[in-house]
Every structure is written in structure tokens, then in C-alpha cells.
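Hi U.,

Before I forget, here's the chain from the pilot set. I'm dumping it here mostly so it's searchable later in email.
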Amino acid sequence: RVIPPLALRIDLPLVSRLGSVGAAVAYTAFVGPELTVIRACIMAISCIAGLIFLRKSNLVEGLATAGVIILLLWPMAIYSASFQLSFCAVLGIAGILEKTKGAPHSIIMLLITPGAGVFTIPIVVYLFGYVSAIGFLANIILVPFFSVVIMPLSILGLLIHLLYPPLSGLIFTLDMGALHFLVAACDLFGTVHPISTPWIAWVYTSYLGLIIAFWGSETRWHTCILALLCITLFVLPVMKNG
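Structure:
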């Protein structure tokens, strides 16, 4: 009786976005002001701010703003693997949201993790020289498990510890059991295959193709360019190893 009338009187999307900003700041304070954590917090706040202040929400513009702020504060961050992977992952999420407008929420949530993975593969291959055969399938299962089970249990345990410490032990025991399960699953599905490091041109071509595929207009030239880029992505490794 209370929640429906209240929901009609307040701007729930705005409240949820402001709550997300508070959660990002609280998480940063809880984990500690490490450089990577601060960069992630700036990225989250910039993207959420774009959703709050822009008439037409655009996650890519918020991501670009975060990039400008971070590089002004830490210019050398652009050479950091964590910076590159974080931004490419968020760019992949933005691409999935762009392509799935109007789709059921369950489908969007299912595609977000693979989308982030697709956009990070070129950098992972170039910097670390490996690829996982079943990484996408594993992430679809394991990433939501971490978000839905492990993180809520950790937060609940900390809150209960402040109120009644003896009970928090049970929560933390369940949390550690879930964490051990996650580690065992990662060991089972986390096999990787080393590959030769590609040319940097292959990385640039990969991202050019992804950007055109997700944000390019649907025209004949669009299809032709994508086909050419796909051929290039195949030819470059053959030329390097030939």
C-alpha cells in the first residue's frame, strides 16, 4: 500500500542512479583509495552522470568524459592494461545496450558479459598472448554468480557483524563456501591456449570492425567495409606467421 503510491510520486530512475553514485563512492572508501579503484570510481560516476544530466542518455559519452578526466589526472594511465581493459569492457556493454534497445531485460543481461568479453579479446591477445576456448560460456555463469551470491553475502556479513558479530560467522562461512566453488569452477573452465602475439595493426583493425558493427549505419557500404575488415583480420596473422 505504501510503495506503489510512493513510486508514482518520485523519480525512481533518478533515485537509482544517485544510489549508484553513492554505492560507487562507498565501495571506493571501503576498498581503499588505490589508483585502479579511483579510476573505476571516476568511470562509474561519469557514466552515471551522463545518464542523469543528458536528455538522451549516452553511455559512450559518459565513458569518454571519464577517459578525459582520468588522462588529465594520470596521463600515463593510457598505457595501463587495467585502464585499457576497463574501458573496452564498458564500451562493449554500451555496444550491447545500443544493439538490444527494446529487447527483454533478461536477454540484455545475458548478452552484456559476452559483449564485454568480445571488446577485451584483442587487448588480451596482444598483451598476454592467450585466448580461452570456453571463456564466454564460463563468464556467463560465473560473473552473475559472483554478483548475485558472493557480493551480497559479503555485504550482508559486514552489516551483521556491526550489529551482532556471532551471527556474521555463519554468513561469512557461506560466503567462503561460495567463493571456493567459484575458484574451483574457474580452475575447471579457466584453461587458456597460448597464441603468437599479433601485430598491433590487427588490434586496431579489430576495434575498427567492432565500432562499425555496433554503431555504424546499416548500408551497403557498411556491409562491404565489415567484410573487408574480417578478411584483413584473417590475413594479418597469416602474413605474420607465414
